[in-house]
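Notes for week 9. Today we move from apo structures to complexes. The key idea is that a small molecule is not decoration. When we ask for a structure prediction with zinc ion present, the ligand SMILES becomes part of the input, just like the chain. The input block below holds both the sequence and the ligand string. Read it once before you look at the output, and try to guess where the molecule might sit.
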Amino acid sequence: MRITDSRYDRDRQRLTVACRLIVHEARTQTIRQATGLSGDRIRKLYRDYFFTERPVRRRRGKSPRQMSFFRRSPAHELEAAALGALLRQCGFLGRPQVLYRPGLEEVAHFCDVYETFRSLCPATAITFEHAWHLLHVLARLDEFVLARCPDCQATWIRDTLDLLPDNCAACRADPPD
Ligand SMILES: [Zn+2]
């Protein structure tokens, strides 16, 4: 009985997290990876709860995979750095294992981080999927890393393979004296 109860609780938790991801317009593939639910169950969830009652946009196609998105404008760069700083503060960076088998609690925690970020930057162009991609890139501590700008000491995202730019978007827009 206890096992059944705990399975039921786990399944309910899975569905709760999946609903949060649907509200954030995550793609089916991302929801599958993050919750372990099958594509069929996600589509059913979407149909049963979100299609008529509470319409949300369903994004199709591949998830964003380009870091160039975060370099589109100084605002994109600064917001990506703010999100990166939140992810680091909340313990998401430097643990590559979080990327391959994220626990439900970690995914729920990531939703908290993204929602906090949206409350700080309500007009941001960084979607949930972009944020999820940024997490995967930064957690690898490889090509892109959070670093201190050498000119103003603010947190920025440095491309470790690129020599330029060598300081943050704010310093480039308004060079320090
Ligand atoms: Zn700077």
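The first strand starts at residue 144 and ends at 148.
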